[in-house]
Amino acid sequence: MTRTLRIYEDTFPIAGSFTISRGSRTEIHVMVAEIVDGAHKGRGECVPYAHYGESMASVRQQIEAMGPLIAQGGEGGSACRAELNQALAPGAARNALDCALFDLEAKMSGRRAWELADLAPPPDLLTAYTLSLGSPDEMANAAHGAKDHRLLKLKLGGDGDPERVAAVRQAAPDSRLIVDANEAWAPEMFLPFSTALAELGVELIEQPLPSGSDRMLSDCAHPVPICADESCHVSADLDALAGRYDMVNVKLDKSGGLTEGLILTREAKRRGFGVMVGCMLGTSLAMAPAILLASLADYVDLDGPLLLAKDRDAALIYGDSFVSGPTPELWG
Q1: CATH superfamily of 125-323
Q2: Which CATH superfamily, name and number, covers 4-110?
Q3: Catalytic: 269?
Q4: Which sequence spans correspond to the domains of the chain?
Q5: What's the CA angle centered on 195, arms 190 and 196, to 5 degrees?
Q6: Closest CA to 299 of 282, 278, 321
Q7: What is the CA angle 234-66-231, rounded to 5?
């Protein structure tokens, strides 16, 4: 039977607004690839990201171009995903299709996706909770409201970052802190800012310098471990990161799906990198495949649905700073 590929777009409102160094927004736009084979249907969600040259239109076009490959079905399972990974570059489009193929195979075989990936069932995972970039007072107020979360991730923006972190530390003294500068620091900020953040108990600094302008990280001390995000998309990027970064952030919309995400995670760990599994701002459908990876990670940042005003049906369950694995009704 020929497989059918369907594509649709969804919009979800954010609870309030979400701000990073590159801007602010009040809603998210996601794209879903749905592959139907007889009575079975697999879904995968992606979030096109303009910073990587993606748009809803360009990602839709990439997904549509894979229609003939999907319709053929190949041998199914890992063989079909491998063919997809050869035919399509890493990014959001490939992520949606790769995850949809995983979901479809799980439903057709009656096995869970983690079994197909040769993983143990995912345990409940401690996930970070993200605070938007704002003034020190604004971030302190947000931290006070989120102080029951055990791990807070602070979005930073450059000038004034030590003051922002100090304000959050005072407002949430018992929470663990990690930070994400989204490439916003200038080179001269790195040592004084990272030293100040170390004194405030920050455990991890994510992507302080712009991707491609981070060579200096190999020539200076790291008072706090440094995690590559924009500088790391796929396993082939790891060679250039050695000596510059202590960890990598694996996101399925960057790696182009769970297939490459697993390769990247396992290879990073083999080379001695720590691993964070993160996400774009998406729904439970986007987080579900990443939860499989997160069981291998040192840090988990899969709080996307917590930042939305509404989520999908059969959503992931979050509670007491932890997230549980997906039900078959959602994915996998």
Answers
A1: Enolase-like C-terminal domain (3.20.20.120)
A2: Enolase-like, N-terminal domain (3.30.390.10)
A3: no
A4: 4-110, 125-323
A5: 105
A6: 278
A7: 15
Task: Report pTM.
Answer: 0.95
Given the structure tokens 């594509």, which residue do they identify? Answer: 7
Confidence of residue 72 (pLDDT cuts 50, 70, 90): confident
pLDDT tens digit string along 244-267?
Answer: 999 999 999 999 999 999 999 999
How distant, in Å, are the alpha carbons of 127, 145, 160, 169, 313 from that of 137? 24, 13, 12, 12, 36
Question: What DSSP element (H or E) covers 214?
Answer: none
Query: Looking at 41, 147, 153, 251, which residue is catalytic?
Result: 251
Task: List pLDDT tens digits, range 49-70.
Answer: 999 999 999 999 999 999 999 9
Average pLDDT over every residue of 23-31: 95
User: 322-323 and 176-180: which strand pairing?
Assistant: unpaired
Q: How many CB atoms lie within 10 A of CB 313?
A: 8
| Nearest alpha carbon to residue 9 among 24, 28, 26 | 28
Rg of the chain's alpha carbons, rounded to an integer?
Answer: 19
* Structure tokens given for 216: 């200096």
- Please choose, from the candidates 272, 276, 220, the residue with its C-alpha nearest in 3D space to the C-alpha of residue 252: 276
Query: Is 153 designated active site?
Result: no
Please tell me which residue in 155, 254, 269, 310 is annotated as part of the active site.
Answer: 155
**Would you say 233 and 254 are in contact if contact means Cβ atoms under 8 Å apart?**
yes
Could you give the CA distance from residue 182 to residue 184 in angstroms, rounded to a whole number? 6
Contact 288, 329 (CB under 8 A): no
| Total Cβ atoms within 10 A of residue 141 | 16
pLDDT digits (tens, 9 = 90+) for 119-174: 999 999 999 999 999 999 999 999 999 999 999 999 999 999 999 999 999 999 99
Q: Which H or E run includes 254?
A: helix 252-255
